[in-house]
Each structure stands twice: as C-alpha cells, then as structure tokens.
C-alpha cells in the first residue's frame, strides 16, 4: 500500500511538473499585464533619465483629424527634432544605433541622417485585444521546438506577451494585432544606384479568420491570415496575382500559396513564395520573408534572445505617409528621403537568428530589433554566408490610432554592398488610405478567385 501511494504521489508530481513546464506563464506573472507592464507586455515605466516616458495609454482613436480619403493626420505636427545624427557625429550616439544604421552612415556619409524627435509612447489597441493578449499569456504554448503554437486560437494576438526566449519574440511580431480585414493599394520601388526606378503598384486584400463569418474556430485554428496581392501597374506586370493562406504551425501544415500569371492565364501552386524565395516584382532586392520586416515559419533559424536595449528607431512616421507627398519626394538614390522620417528613443528586444546546420537560407544570420510597445520589428540586419552585413531593413512605424494597430508608413531594405534598395508599402498617392472592417469570405481567397482577379 505504501509503495502504491508513493507511486501515485510520484506520478502526480511528474504530472504537475509537466503542467508547469507546458504552461506559458503563471497567473501571478500574467497579472503584471496592465499593472507594471502595459497590456501588450512592455515595461510601463519610463527610463532612468526620463528620455523614455511612462506609457499612459497611447493614442486615442480621435488623436488627429482624418481626411476625406481616410489618411491619418499627424498627432504631433509641431514636434521638432531634438538633434540629427549624421556621419560626422555618429560616434557620439553609437551605443544606441544598430550595426545596420552605422553601416548606412558609412555607405552614404553625405546623405544618410537620423532625425531624433521626442519619444512619444503612442502604442494602443482595443480592449478586446488587451483581453486576448492576457489570455495568450496563460494559454499559448509552443510546439515543434518553438516552430508552432498550441492553444493560440483561443486568443489570436501576441502569443507570448512575457517572452522567455528569442523565438517567442519572433512569434509576437507575427501575431501582433494588425487591425481588421483590410483592402489597400500600395506602391513598391527598387531604385537603381542612380535613383532611376519604375513604380510598381499592388492591391492587397487581407482577412483574418476571427473576422470571417464563414470560417469556424475549428477551421481557422491553424490559420493566421489570408492575403491576395494583385499587381495593377505597370502594364507589363499587371494581372500577376499571388494568394497566400498563412498557417500558424507551418511545420505541421506548410503555408499554402498560389500564383496567377496573366500571360499564361494559369493558376499554379507556388511553394517558392516563402523563406528566401524572391519577393513579388522586387527585382531580386528582397525575399518573400522580408515582407512585413519578417514573416513565415521560424523553423530555419535558431533564435537567441540577446536582451533589451534603448535604441533610436523609426517611430510615429505620420509625415512619411502623408498624402501631400509624392513618391518622387520619398524615393531617392541610395535610400529614401531621410528628412521625411522620424526616429525616437525606445526600448527594443534584440533577437539573433542563425541558420540551423540542417537548413539553408540566403541570410545566414539576421538580427531583429523589436519595439517593446507594439512587437513590430523596426530594424533588421541581414548577413550573408561570409558573415558580412548585407541588407539593412527599416520599418517606418506609425500607429493607426483609429484601429489601434501599429503599421508601417513604408518599409525599406537596403543592400549596403550593391548600393540599391527596395521600398514597399507606400500609399501616399493612392486614392484612399487602407480601408478596414471589410467583409471577406473564404470564396474571396480561393484559387478560382485568384484567376478572376487576374483577368485583364
């Protein structure tokens, strides 16, 4: 009897141990969300010298006037730069600059600059998102060595608001709140070294399972979003359409992708639209997983959490997305017009990804700098197989205060070796800003819908 009791007690202890290992965080730790931590998991307090202020709730939905076409006004129109970092004074600020930013100063010593503005902690999201994030902290677990998520469908946002390792921070970027179903026209350019470029315009339609009436929780459990991307200009590329069903655990169920070529009038499966496959209409200047600064399965890398740092990062870039600007005002030789950008001092999570010995990718190593307030990657350094810094990514973040979603006014990927770059996600010359709350159904994201979108 004594032996049986001890066996039962041992089994119970092992069961409890297993449960504690599998649990995301304890209820006591999750209780920090909304108290010492913001509801999304950032440190609520400011830094020691006050240059990073306390988070007090972020921007309200009516933070600034919105024009008739839905373009956001700048909540801080009277802010002036505190100082401007240039090649001449970069050593003074080096500890708060990424290796990529430092490389940009070396590559473009006369024109690259970083205007640093007062720090505004504008991050905000709907209460329903905050509630979901707290649920994520208590329920979401990683599976397949961190390459997939379990129980995430119960919350749908920010899988690990109190992260313990590098891959959890990567997942937070991928599962951050991006607003509701949306439709938008965006522009992309890949300038030559002399600044010459052809503008490519694309219509992007995205939907999320939780906002689609005909997708049940069971059917959408392993799906993060659906996106359809159609090239609408120039004429020689128009009619090319890509469709993606983005899965959560891509090891268990790989991303589903199709492409429609207007010239061939055929829909084909497109497994190359992932990892280091070429980005759409990007002239080889970016990979498929460079979109949104990073996307897709994290399984090809070992992710190391370096820690948290204070750094100058692109933030509150409302001026850069103004409809008063033309694309020619933004796209310049070597890099975008830095006089239109805004950087602020914020805390970021630093994560290093190194390609696993059993895997391959053209980026042997990549370092992400992730804004603690929004979980958006705002800086990304990419290294080649020789360990040389190759491409530098910058995400010019701006909160859509109507949606409570942190998005990018534009994204750029700079090749510091070739002296070229890609800039994508611009909407300045579009007829309207991104439109949210769109009614989307699965019929809009099938291969048949892909063919219909590409007919011209």
UniProtKB/TrEMBL annotation:
Keywords: Signal. This is DUF1329 domain-containing protein. It holds the Pfam family DUF1329. InterPro entries: DUF1329. Residues 1-23 form the signal peptide. It comes from the Bacteria. CDD domains: LolA_like. It comes from Pseudomonas schmalbachii.
């Amino acid at each position: 009897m004594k032996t049986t009791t001890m066996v039962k007690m041992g089994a119970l202890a092992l069961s409890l141990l297993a449960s504690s290992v599998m649990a995301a965080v304890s209820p006591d730790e999750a209780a920090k969300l909304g108290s010492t931590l913001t509801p999304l998991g950032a440190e609520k307090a400011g830094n020691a010298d006050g240059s990073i202020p306390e988070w007090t709730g972020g921007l309200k939905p009516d933070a600034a006037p919105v024009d008739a076409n839905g373009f956001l006004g700048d909540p801080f129109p009277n802010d002036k730069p505190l100082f401007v970092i240039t090649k001449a004074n970069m050593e003074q600020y080096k500890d708060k600059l990424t290796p990529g930013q430092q490389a940009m100063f070396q590559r473009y010593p006369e024109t690259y600059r970083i205007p640093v503005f007062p720090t505004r902690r504008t991050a905000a999201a709907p209460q329903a998102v905050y509630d979901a994030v707290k649920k994520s902290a208590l329920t979401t677990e990683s599976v397949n060595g961190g390459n997939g998520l379990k129980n995430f469908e119960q919350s749908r946002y920010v899988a690990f608001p109190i992260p313990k390792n590098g891959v959890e921070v990567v997942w937070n970027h991928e599962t951050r709140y991006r607003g509701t179903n949306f439709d938008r026209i965006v522009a992309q350019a890949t300038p030559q070294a002399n600044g010459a470029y052809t503008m490519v315009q694309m219509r992007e339609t995205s939907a999320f399972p939780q906002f689609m009436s005909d997708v049940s929780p069971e059917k959408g459990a392993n799906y993060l979003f659906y996106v359809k991307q159609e090239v609408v200009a120039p004429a020689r590329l128009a009619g090319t359409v890509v469709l993606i069903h983005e899965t959560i655990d891509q090891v268990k169920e790989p991303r589903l992708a199709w492409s429609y070529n207007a010239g061939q009038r055929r829909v084909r499966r497109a497994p190359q639209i992932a990892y280091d496959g070429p980005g759409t209409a990007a002239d080889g200047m970016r990979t498929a997983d460079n979109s949104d600064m990073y996307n897709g399965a994290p399984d090809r890398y070992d992710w190391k959490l370096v820690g948290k740092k204070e750094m100058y990062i692109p933030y509150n870039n409302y001026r850069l997305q103004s409809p008063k600007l033309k694309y020619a005002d933004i796209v310049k030789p070597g890099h975008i017009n830095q006089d239109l950008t805004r950087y602020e001092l914020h805390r970021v999570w630093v994560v290093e990804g190194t390609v696993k010995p059993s895997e391959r990718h053209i980026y042997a190593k990549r370092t992400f700098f992730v804004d603690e307030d929004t979980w958006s990657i705002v800086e990304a350094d990419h290294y080649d197989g020789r360990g040389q810094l190759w491409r530098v990514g910058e995400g010019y973040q701006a909160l859509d205060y109507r949606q409570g979603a942190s998005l990018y006014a534009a994204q750029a990927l700079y090749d510091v070796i070739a002296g070229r770059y890609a800039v994508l996600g611009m909407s300045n010359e579009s007829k309207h800003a991104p439109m949210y709350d769109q009614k989307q159904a699965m019929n809009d994201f099938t291969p048949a819908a892909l063919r219909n979108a590409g007919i011209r």
